[in-house]
Predict the structure of Guanine deaminase.
Amino acid sequence: MNRNDTTARIAHVFRGTFVHSTPRAAVEILQNCVLGVDDKGKIAFIEKHQDVVSLLEIWGFETSDIKQLGQYEFLMPGMVDTHIHASQYSYAGTALDLPLLEWLNTYTFPVEAKYKDLDFANDVYTKVVRRTLKNGTTTACYFATIHTDASLLLGELADRFGQRALVGKVCMDCNSAVPQYKESPILEDCYPNVKPVVTPRFAPSCSSSLLSELGEIANNNKLHVQSHISENKEEVELVKTLFPGCKSYTDVYLKHNLLTDRTIMAHGCHLTDEELEIFRETGSAVSHCPNSNISICSGMLNVRNVLNHKVKLGLGTDVAGGYSPSMLDAMRRTLDTSKALTIQDPQHKTLSFEEVFRLATLGGSEALSLDDQIGNFVVGKDFDALRVNVCVPDGPIDLFPGEGPKVILEKFLNLGDDRNITEVYMAGRRVVPFPDT
Ligand code: GUN
Ligand code: ZN
Protein backbone atom coordinates (compact mmCIF):
# COMPACT_ATOMS: atom_id res chain seq x y z
CA MET A 1 0.00 0.00 0.00
CA ASN A 2 1.22 3.44 -0.89
CA ARG A 3 -0.55 5.68 1.52
CA ASN A 4 1.67 7.76 3.79
CA ASP A 5 -0.04 11.12 3.35
CA THR A 6 -2.77 12.69 5.39
CA THR A 7 -6.39 11.60 5.16
CA ALA A 8 -7.32 14.85 3.45
CA ARG A 9 -5.76 13.55 0.27
CA ILE A 10 -8.25 10.71 -0.18
CA ALA A 11 -11.17 11.88 -2.30
CA HIS A 12 -13.14 8.63 -2.88
CA VAL A 13 -13.19 5.15 -1.46
CA PHE A 14 -15.14 2.38 -3.24
CA ARG A 15 -15.86 -1.03 -1.79
CA GLY A 16 -17.00 -4.05 -3.77
CA THR A 17 -15.92 -5.90 -6.93
CA PHE A 18 -13.21 -4.59 -9.27
CA VAL A 19 -12.50 -6.12 -12.66
CA HIS A 20 -9.38 -5.30 -14.67
CA SER A 21 -6.49 -6.75 -16.66
CA THR A 22 -2.92 -7.20 -15.51
CA PRO A 23 0.19 -8.09 -17.52
CA ARG A 24 -0.41 -11.70 -16.40
CA ALA A 25 -4.20 -12.05 -16.39
CA ALA A 26 -6.56 -10.88 -19.12
CA VAL A 27 -9.25 -10.64 -16.45
CA GLU A 28 -8.59 -10.33 -12.74
CA ILE A 29 -11.65 -10.10 -10.50
CA LEU A 30 -11.08 -8.63 -7.06
CA GLN A 31 -14.01 -9.16 -4.70
CA ASN A 32 -14.71 -7.42 -1.43
CA CYS A 33 -11.89 -5.00 -2.03
CA VAL A 34 -11.48 -1.33 -1.26
CA LEU A 35 -10.08 1.18 -3.76
CA GLY A 36 -9.03 4.68 -2.71
CA VAL A 37 -8.60 7.66 -5.03
CA ASP A 38 -6.57 10.68 -3.97
CA ASP A 39 -7.47 14.28 -4.65
CA LYS A 40 -5.17 14.34 -7.70
CA GLY A 41 -7.33 11.62 -9.24
CA LYS A 42 -4.78 8.85 -8.72
CA ILE A 43 -5.36 5.40 -7.30
CA ALA A 44 -3.99 5.54 -3.74
CA PHE A 45 -4.66 1.96 -2.69
CA ILE A 46 -6.49 -1.19 -3.73
CA GLU A 47 -6.66 -3.81 -1.02
CA LYS A 48 -8.79 -6.54 0.48
CA HIS A 49 -11.36 -4.83 2.69
CA GLN A 50 -10.37 -6.65 5.87
CA ASP A 51 -6.75 -5.52 5.41
CA VAL A 52 -7.58 -1.82 5.38
CA VAL A 53 -10.81 -1.51 7.32
CA SER A 54 -9.05 -0.53 10.53
CA LEU A 55 -6.71 1.85 8.67
CA LEU A 56 -9.67 3.51 7.02
CA GLU A 57 -11.04 4.27 10.44
CA ILE A 58 -7.71 5.70 11.56
CA TRP A 59 -7.71 7.88 8.43
CA GLY A 60 -11.12 9.18 9.47
CA PHE A 61 -13.21 7.35 6.93
CA GLU A 62 -16.68 6.77 8.26
CA THR A 63 -18.47 3.80 6.71
CA SER A 64 -20.81 6.32 5.18
CA ASP A 65 -17.88 7.89 3.27
CA ILE A 66 -17.29 4.63 1.45
CA LYS A 67 -19.12 4.15 -1.82
CA GLN A 68 -20.49 0.64 -1.49
CA LEU A 69 -21.05 -1.17 -4.78
CA GLY A 70 -24.13 -3.39 -4.96
CA GLN A 71 -24.23 -7.14 -5.55
CA TYR A 72 -24.65 -6.70 -9.31
CA GLU A 73 -22.22 -3.83 -9.65
CA PHE A 74 -18.51 -3.64 -10.38
CA LEU A 75 -15.88 -1.09 -11.33
CA MET A 76 -13.80 -1.61 -14.46
CA PRO A 77 -11.20 0.62 -16.13
CA GLY A 78 -12.48 3.20 -18.59
CA MET A 79 -12.34 2.03 -22.19
CA VAL A 80 -9.78 3.34 -24.70
CA ASP A 81 -10.98 4.06 -28.23
CA THR A 82 -7.71 4.09 -30.15
CA HIS A 83 -9.23 5.34 -33.42
CA ILE A 84 -12.31 7.49 -33.97
CA HIS A 85 -13.16 10.25 -36.44
CA ALA A 86 -15.06 12.81 -34.36
CA SER A 87 -15.88 14.68 -37.57
CA GLN A 88 -17.64 11.67 -39.12
CA TYR A 89 -20.04 11.19 -36.21
CA SER A 90 -22.71 13.26 -38.01
CA TYR A 91 -23.28 10.43 -40.48
CA ALA A 92 -22.53 7.43 -38.27
CA GLY A 93 -24.96 4.64 -39.06
CA THR A 94 -25.33 5.63 -42.72
CA ALA A 95 -23.33 5.63 -45.95
CA LEU A 96 -21.77 2.18 -45.66
CA ASP A 97 -22.35 0.99 -49.22
CA LEU A 98 -19.04 1.85 -50.88
CA PRO A 99 -15.47 0.59 -50.56
CA LEU A 100 -12.88 2.82 -48.88
CA LEU A 101 -11.57 5.04 -51.67
CA GLU A 102 -15.01 5.73 -53.16
CA TRP A 103 -16.48 6.06 -49.66
CA LEU A 104 -13.92 8.79 -48.84
CA ASN A 105 -14.63 10.78 -52.00
CA THR A 106 -18.40 10.35 -51.94
CA TYR A 107 -19.25 10.80 -48.27
CA THR A 108 -16.30 11.66 -46.08
CA PHE A 109 -14.47 14.52 -47.79
CA PRO A 110 -17.63 16.55 -48.50
CA VAL A 111 -18.81 16.23 -44.87
CA GLU A 112 -15.38 17.04 -43.44
CA ALA A 113 -15.28 20.24 -45.53
CA LYS A 114 -18.18 21.53 -43.41
CA TYR A 115 -15.91 21.93 -40.36
CA LYS A 116 -14.84 25.37 -41.46
CA ASP A 117 -18.20 26.28 -39.87
CA LEU A 118 -17.58 26.31 -36.11
CA ASP A 119 -21.29 26.07 -35.25
CA PHE A 120 -21.53 22.84 -37.19
CA ALA A 121 -18.33 21.60 -35.52
CA ASN A 122 -19.58 22.55 -32.08
CA ASP A 123 -22.81 20.62 -32.55
CA VAL A 124 -21.20 17.41 -33.81
CA TYR A 125 -18.19 17.50 -31.50
CA THR A 126 -20.35 18.10 -28.41
CA LYS A 127 -22.51 15.14 -29.37
CA VAL A 128 -19.64 12.75 -30.09
CA VAL A 129 -17.78 13.55 -26.87
CA ARG A 130 -20.94 13.11 -24.78
CA ARG A 131 -22.05 9.96 -26.61
CA THR A 132 -18.69 8.22 -26.28
CA LEU A 133 -18.28 9.23 -22.63
CA LYS A 134 -21.76 7.88 -21.79
CA ASN A 135 -20.72 4.64 -23.47
CA GLY A 136 -17.64 4.36 -21.28
CA THR A 137 -14.87 5.75 -23.49
CA THR A 138 -12.68 7.62 -21.03
CA THR A 139 -9.83 7.96 -23.56
CA ALA A 140 -10.35 8.71 -27.26
CA CYS A 141 -7.75 9.06 -29.98
CA TYR A 142 -9.54 11.43 -32.35
CA PHE A 143 -9.16 12.46 -35.96
CA ALA A 144 -10.72 15.90 -36.43
CA THR A 145 -10.43 17.55 -39.88
CA ILE A 146 -7.96 19.86 -41.59
CA HIS A 147 -9.53 22.86 -39.84
CA THR A 148 -7.40 24.27 -37.02
CA ASP A 149 -10.15 26.16 -35.17
CA ALA A 150 -12.56 23.23 -35.20
CA SER A 151 -9.77 20.87 -34.08
CA LEU A 152 -8.95 23.15 -31.16
CA LEU A 153 -12.65 23.24 -30.31
CA LEU A 154 -12.73 19.44 -30.14
CA GLY A 155 -9.88 19.55 -27.61
CA GLU A 156 -11.70 22.17 -25.58
CA LEU A 157 -14.91 20.10 -25.53
CA ALA A 158 -13.09 16.92 -24.49
CA ASP A 159 -11.52 18.88 -21.64
CA ARG A 160 -14.83 20.48 -20.65
CA PHE A 161 -16.78 17.20 -20.54
CA GLY A 162 -13.90 15.30 -18.94
CA GLN A 163 -12.67 12.95 -21.61
CA ARG A 164 -8.98 12.12 -21.96
CA ALA A 165 -8.13 12.67 -25.60
CA LEU A 166 -5.50 12.79 -28.27
CA VAL A 167 -6.74 15.21 -30.91
CA GLY A 168 -5.38 15.20 -34.44
CA LYS A 169 -5.81 17.99 -36.93
CA VAL A 170 -5.86 15.99 -40.15
CA CYS A 171 -2.97 16.72 -42.53
CA MET A 172 -3.32 16.02 -46.24
CA ASP A 173 -2.17 17.72 -49.41
CA CYS A 174 -3.02 15.44 -52.34
CA ASN A 175 -5.58 13.22 -54.02
CA SER A 176 -8.63 14.80 -52.45
CA ALA A 177 -11.76 15.41 -54.45
CA VAL A 178 -12.32 18.53 -52.36
CA PRO A 179 -10.00 21.41 -53.27
CA GLN A 180 -9.69 23.38 -50.02
CA TYR A 181 -7.51 20.88 -48.16
CA LYS A 182 -4.29 22.53 -46.99
CA GLU A 183 -1.73 21.97 -44.28
CA SER A 184 -0.37 22.91 -40.88
CA PRO A 185 -0.48 20.68 -37.81
CA ILE A 186 -1.55 22.15 -34.47
CA LEU A 187 0.75 21.85 -31.52
CA GLU A 188 -1.23 23.58 -28.81
CA ASP A 189 -0.87 21.69 -25.57
CA CYS A 190 -2.84 23.41 -22.88
CA TYR A 191 -5.03 20.83 -21.12
CA PRO A 192 -3.81 18.23 -18.63
CA ASN A 193 -5.55 15.30 -20.30
CA VAL A 194 -5.95 16.44 -23.90
CA LYS A 195 -2.88 16.27 -26.15
CA PRO A 196 -2.16 16.81 -29.83
CA VAL A 197 -1.39 13.90 -32.14
CA VAL A 198 0.37 14.37 -35.48
CA THR A 199 -2.11 13.10 -38.07
CA PRO A 200 -1.17 12.46 -41.70
CA ARG A 201 -4.50 11.16 -43.05
CA PHE A 202 -2.90 8.23 -44.90
CA ALA A 203 -0.11 7.83 -47.43
CA PRO A 204 -2.32 8.40 -50.53
CA SER A 205 -3.39 11.83 -49.17
CA CYS A 206 0.12 13.04 -48.39
CA SER A 207 3.09 14.09 -50.47
CA SER A 208 6.48 12.74 -49.48
CA SER A 209 7.53 16.21 -48.32
CA LEU A 210 4.45 16.52 -46.09
CA LEU A 211 5.14 13.10 -44.55
CA SER A 212 8.78 14.10 -43.87
CA GLU A 213 7.73 17.37 -42.30
CA LEU A 214 5.25 15.60 -40.03
CA GLY A 215 7.83 12.97 -39.06
CA GLU A 216 10.20 15.74 -38.05
CA ILE A 217 7.56 17.59 -36.03
CA ALA A 218 6.57 14.40 -34.22
CA ASN A 219 10.15 13.46 -33.38
CA ASN A 220 11.31 16.94 -32.39
CA ASN A 221 8.33 17.39 -30.07
CA LYS A 222 8.00 13.76 -28.87
CA LEU A 223 4.41 13.71 -30.10
CA HIS A 224 2.06 10.86 -30.86
CA VAL A 225 1.42 9.97 -34.51
CA GLN A 226 -1.72 8.42 -35.96
CA SER A 227 -2.69 7.41 -39.47
CA HIS A 228 -4.23 4.59 -41.50
CA ILE A 229 -2.43 1.63 -43.06
CA SER A 230 -3.32 -1.37 -45.27
CA GLU A 231 -7.03 -1.10 -44.69
CA ASN A 232 -8.18 -2.25 -48.12
CA LYS A 233 -6.39 -4.04 -50.98
CA GLU A 234 -7.08 -1.34 -53.56
CA GLU A 235 -5.48 1.22 -51.22
CA VAL A 236 -2.41 -1.01 -50.76
CA GLU A 237 -2.01 -1.21 -54.57
CA LEU A 238 -2.44 2.57 -54.86
CA VAL A 239 0.34 3.15 -52.32
CA LYS A 240 2.66 0.90 -54.35
CA THR A 241 2.14 3.11 -57.40
CA LEU A 242 2.41 6.39 -55.44
CA PHE A 243 5.58 5.41 -53.55
CA PRO A 244 7.48 3.12 -55.98
CA GLY A 245 10.72 3.55 -54.02
CA CYS A 246 9.26 1.98 -50.88
CA LYS A 247 9.26 -1.75 -50.23
CA SER A 248 5.84 -1.78 -48.57
CA TYR A 249 3.11 0.45 -47.14
CA THR A 250 4.84 0.20 -43.76
CA ASP A 251 8.11 1.21 -45.40
CA VAL A 252 6.49 4.47 -46.57
CA TYR A 253 5.84 5.54 -42.96
CA LEU A 254 9.18 4.10 -41.79
CA LYS A 255 11.13 6.07 -44.39
CA HIS A 256 9.40 9.28 -43.29
CA ASN A 257 10.27 8.68 -39.60
CA LEU A 258 6.64 8.25 -38.63
CA LEU A 259 6.96 4.89 -36.87
CA THR A 260 7.86 5.32 -33.20
CA ASP A 261 6.61 3.89 -29.91
CA ARG A 262 4.07 6.72 -29.87
CA THR A 263 2.60 5.76 -33.26
CA ILE A 264 -0.80 4.14 -33.75
CA MET A 265 -1.90 2.98 -37.19
CA ALA A 266 -5.51 2.05 -37.86
CA HIS A 267 -6.58 -1.20 -39.54
CA GLY A 268 -3.52 -3.05 -40.89
CA CYS A 269 -5.81 -5.77 -42.29
CA HIS A 270 -3.39 -6.61 -45.09
CA LEU A 271 -0.01 -6.14 -43.37
CA THR A 272 2.52 -8.89 -44.08
CA ASP A 273 4.46 -10.65 -41.33
CA GLU A 274 7.52 -8.71 -42.49
CA GLU A 275 5.67 -5.43 -41.96
CA LEU A 276 4.47 -6.55 -38.52
CA GLU A 277 8.11 -7.18 -37.66
CA ILE A 278 8.81 -3.48 -38.40
CA PHE A 279 5.92 -2.52 -36.12
CA ARG A 280 7.42 -4.61 -33.35
CA GLU A 281 10.93 -3.23 -33.84
CA THR A 282 9.76 0.39 -33.82
CA GLY A 283 7.23 -0.11 -30.99
CA SER A 284 4.39 1.14 -33.19
CA ALA A 285 0.86 -0.06 -32.52
CA VAL A 286 -2.15 -1.23 -34.51
CA SER A 287 -5.71 -0.03 -33.88
CA HIS A 288 -8.13 -2.81 -34.79
CA CYS A 289 -11.46 -1.39 -36.02
CA PRO A 290 -13.60 -4.43 -36.84
CA ASN A 291 -16.94 -2.67 -37.29
CA SER A 292 -15.42 -0.48 -39.99
CA ASN A 293 -13.51 -3.35 -41.60
CA ILE A 294 -16.74 -5.30 -42.06
CA SER A 295 -19.05 -2.34 -42.76
CA ILE A 296 -17.08 -1.05 -45.72
CA CYS A 297 -15.78 -4.52 -46.67
CA SER A 298 -12.11 -3.70 -46.15
CA GLY A 299 -10.77 -6.96 -44.74
CA MET A 300 -10.44 -8.99 -41.56
CA LEU A 301 -7.42 -8.35 -39.37
CA ASN A 302 -5.95 -11.48 -37.81
CA VAL A 303 -5.51 -10.07 -34.30
CA ARG A 304 -4.00 -13.34 -33.05
CA ASN A 305 -1.23 -13.05 -35.61
CA VAL A 306 -0.54 -9.42 -34.64
CA LEU A 307 -0.36 -10.39 -30.96
CA ASN A 308 1.89 -13.35 -31.78
CA HIS A 309 4.26 -10.86 -33.42
CA LYS A 310 4.33 -8.95 -30.09
CA VAL A 311 2.90 -5.84 -31.73
CA LYS A 312 0.88 -3.57 -29.44
CA LEU A 313 -2.82 -3.59 -30.35
CA GLY A 314 -5.86 -1.63 -29.18
CA LEU A 315 -9.45 -1.45 -30.40
CA GLY A 316 -11.11 1.41 -32.24
CA THR A 317 -14.62 2.25 -33.35
CA ASP A 318 -13.41 4.12 -36.48
CA VAL A 319 -16.63 6.10 -36.53
CA ALA A 320 -18.00 6.50 -39.18
CA GLY A 321 -16.52 3.72 -41.35
CA GLY A 322 -17.61 1.89 -38.21
CA TYR A 323 -21.22 2.73 -37.44
CA SER A 324 -21.12 2.37 -33.65
CA PRO A 325 -19.47 4.83 -31.25
CA SER A 326 -19.47 2.19 -28.50
CA MET A 327 -16.38 0.27 -27.45
CA LEU A 328 -18.67 -2.55 -26.32
CA ASP A 329 -19.56 -2.91 -29.99
CA ALA A 330 -15.85 -2.85 -30.90
CA MET A 331 -15.28 -5.75 -28.50
CA ARG A 332 -18.18 -7.74 -29.94
CA ARG A 333 -17.09 -7.17 -33.54
CA THR A 334 -13.55 -8.18 -32.55
CA LEU A 335 -14.92 -11.49 -31.29
CA ASP A 336 -17.09 -11.92 -34.41
CA THR A 337 -14.14 -11.30 -36.73
CA SER A 338 -11.98 -13.70 -34.78
CA LYS A 339 -14.71 -16.36 -35.03
CA ALA A 340 -15.10 -15.73 -38.77
CA LEU A 341 -11.35 -16.37 -39.13
CA THR A 342 -11.79 -19.64 -37.23
CA ILE A 343 -14.62 -20.63 -39.59
CA GLN A 344 -12.23 -20.03 -42.49
CA ASP A 345 -9.35 -21.83 -40.79
CA PRO A 346 -10.11 -24.15 -37.87
CA GLN A 347 -6.42 -23.91 -36.83
CA HIS A 348 -6.95 -20.25 -35.98
CA LYS A 349 -7.09 -19.74 -32.21
CA THR A 350 -10.23 -17.69 -31.52
CA LEU A 351 -9.89 -14.73 -29.16
CA SER A 352 -11.65 -15.09 -25.81
CA PHE A 353 -13.93 -12.44 -24.30
CA GLU A 354 -11.33 -12.00 -21.57
CA GLU A 355 -8.63 -11.18 -24.15
CA VAL A 356 -10.94 -8.73 -25.87
CA PHE A 357 -11.73 -7.02 -22.54
CA ARG A 358 -7.99 -6.59 -22.12
CA LEU A 359 -7.61 -5.07 -25.60
CA ALA A 360 -10.35 -2.49 -24.88
CA THR A 361 -8.69 -1.35 -21.65
CA LEU A 362 -5.05 -2.14 -20.85
CA GLY A 363 -4.26 -3.04 -24.48
CA GLY A 364 -5.57 0.32 -25.68
CA SER A 365 -3.51 2.14 -23.08
CA GLU A 366 -0.39 0.25 -24.23
CA ALA A 367 -1.15 0.97 -27.87
CA LEU A 368 -1.25 4.68 -27.06
CA SER A 369 1.81 4.41 -24.78
CA LEU A 370 -0.31 5.66 -21.91
CA ASP A 371 -0.07 2.47 -19.85
CA ASP A 372 2.08 4.16 -17.22
CA GLN A 373 -0.93 6.41 -16.58
CA ILE A 374 -4.14 4.46 -17.34
CA GLY A 375 -5.49 1.04 -18.36
CA ASN A 376 -5.99 -0.83 -15.09
CA PHE A 377 -6.32 -0.40 -11.34
CA VAL A 378 -2.72 -0.03 -10.22
CA VAL A 379 -1.64 2.28 -7.41
CA GLY A 380 -0.30 5.53 -8.86
CA LYS A 381 -2.28 5.38 -12.12
CA ASP A 382 -5.10 7.79 -12.84
CA PHE A 383 -8.53 6.62 -11.74
CA ASP A 384 -10.34 6.27 -15.08
CA ALA A 385 -13.22 3.94 -14.31
CA LEU A 386 -16.73 2.81 -15.12
CA ARG A 387 -19.29 1.90 -12.51
CA VAL A 388 -21.27 -0.92 -14.09
CA ASN A 389 -24.62 -2.17 -12.84
CA VAL A 390 -25.85 -5.19 -14.78
CA CYS A 391 -29.23 -5.10 -13.04
CA VAL A 392 -30.69 -1.70 -13.88
CA PRO A 393 -34.50 -1.43 -14.13
CA ASP A 394 -35.70 -2.21 -17.68
CA GLY A 395 -32.08 -2.84 -18.65
CA PRO A 396 -30.80 -5.12 -21.40
CA ILE A 397 -29.52 -7.96 -19.16
CA ASP A 398 -31.36 -10.71 -17.26
CA LEU A 399 -29.53 -12.63 -14.56
CA PHE A 400 -30.24 -16.10 -13.21
CA PRO A 401 -29.38 -17.85 -9.94
CA GLY A 402 -25.79 -18.92 -9.43
CA GLU A 403 -24.20 -16.52 -11.91
CA GLY A 404 -20.87 -15.33 -10.57
CA PRO A 405 -18.84 -12.22 -11.42
CA LYS A 406 -17.19 -13.71 -14.50
CA VAL A 407 -20.54 -14.60 -16.08
CA ILE A 408 -21.85 -11.17 -15.10
CA LEU A 409 -18.86 -9.56 -16.85
CA GLU A 410 -19.38 -11.68 -19.96
CA LYS A 411 -23.08 -10.80 -20.08
CA PHE A 412 -22.24 -7.10 -19.74
CA LEU A 413 -19.68 -7.27 -22.54
CA ASN A 414 -22.07 -9.09 -24.88
CA LEU A 415 -25.46 -7.66 -23.90
CA GLY A 416 -24.83 -4.44 -21.98
CA ASP A 417 -25.11 -0.84 -23.10
CA ASP A 418 -24.87 2.67 -21.71
CA ARG A 419 -27.82 2.05 -19.38
CA ASN A 420 -25.54 -0.27 -17.44
CA ILE A 421 -22.75 2.34 -17.17
CA THR A 422 -24.13 4.36 -14.30
CA GLU A 423 -21.03 6.44 -13.57
CA VAL A 424 -17.86 7.33 -15.45
CA TYR A 425 -14.71 8.73 -13.81
CA MET A 426 -11.75 10.32 -15.57
CA ALA A 427 -8.68 11.17 -13.48
CA GLY A 428 -10.81 10.86 -10.35
CA ARG A 429 -13.47 13.27 -11.58
CA ARG A 430 -17.00 11.94 -12.01
CA VAL A 431 -17.94 12.96 -15.57
CA VAL A 432 -21.08 10.80 -16.10
CA PRO A 433 -23.87 11.42 -15.24
CA PHE A 434 -23.28 14.80 -16.85
CA PRO A 435 -23.55 17.66 -14.37
CA ASP A 436 -26.25 19.25 -16.57
CA THR A 437 -28.62 16.25 -16.46
N1 GUN B 1 -8.26 6.21 -44.74
C1 GUN B 1 -8.02 7.52 -44.93
N2 GUN B 1 -8.97 8.28 -44.38
C2 GUN B 1 -9.85 7.43 -43.81
C3 GUN B 1 -11.05 7.64 -43.07
O1 GUN B 1 -11.51 8.74 -42.83
N3 GUN B 1 -11.68 6.49 -42.65
C4 GUN B 1 -11.18 5.26 -42.89
N4 GUN B 1 -11.85 4.19 -42.44
N5 GUN B 1 -10.06 5.05 -43.59
C5 GUN B 1 -9.41 6.13 -44.04
ZN1 ZN C 1 -10.14 5.90 -39.62
In short: The chain has a mean pLDDT of 94. Residues 327-344 form the longest helix (18 residues). The two ends are 37 Å apart (CA to CA).
